[in-house]
Specification:
DUF5319; elongated; single chain; 4 helices; about 120 residues; about 40% helix; 3-stranded mixed beta sheet; mainly alpha; DUF5319 domain-containing protein
């Protein structure tokens, strides 16, 4: 089939043509975390493991976060939050993910609740 028989390219001359990325090597620069930010993420991962160990057996499925961008609550199951933090550590950013489907808010607690609960339990030991 000749090129003349094909319909015109709707992206011809468009610098934002999505097909252009197929011809070029990917040159996406990764964001990098500062040493202090990396330390915070590592500490958050360690805290998350403690919180999950203490609260999962009590029926808590994960953590709820009030989103400053959209003003809504986001419900993160333990494994999703852990993988997001690990991705932040590895890649310097978290990719968007699908929100929890119809979460029961009574199964999620805040990070602050987790911290207070862990402090209380571990201080009694």
């Amino acid at each position: 089939m000749s090129r003349d028989a094909l319909p015109p390219d709707p992206f011809a001359g468009d610098p934002h043509d999505p097909a252009l990325s197929l011809d070029r090597p990917e040159t996406v620069e990764q964001d990098s975390l500062s040493e202090a930010e990396r330390d915070e993420v590592v500490a958050d991962l360690a805290d998350l493991a403690v919180y999950q160990a203490l609260l999962e057996a009590r029926g808590v499925r994960g953590i709820v976060v009030d989103c400053g961008d959209c003003g809504e609550q986001h419900f993160h199951e333990w494994s999703l939050l852990r993988s997001s933090l690990q991705q932040l550590l590895d890649e310097g950013q978290m990719r968007p993910h699908e929100p929890a489907f119809d979460p029961d808010p009574t199964n999620y607690v805040t990070w602050e609740y987790c911290r207070g609960y862990a402090d209380a339990v571990l201080s009694d030991s």
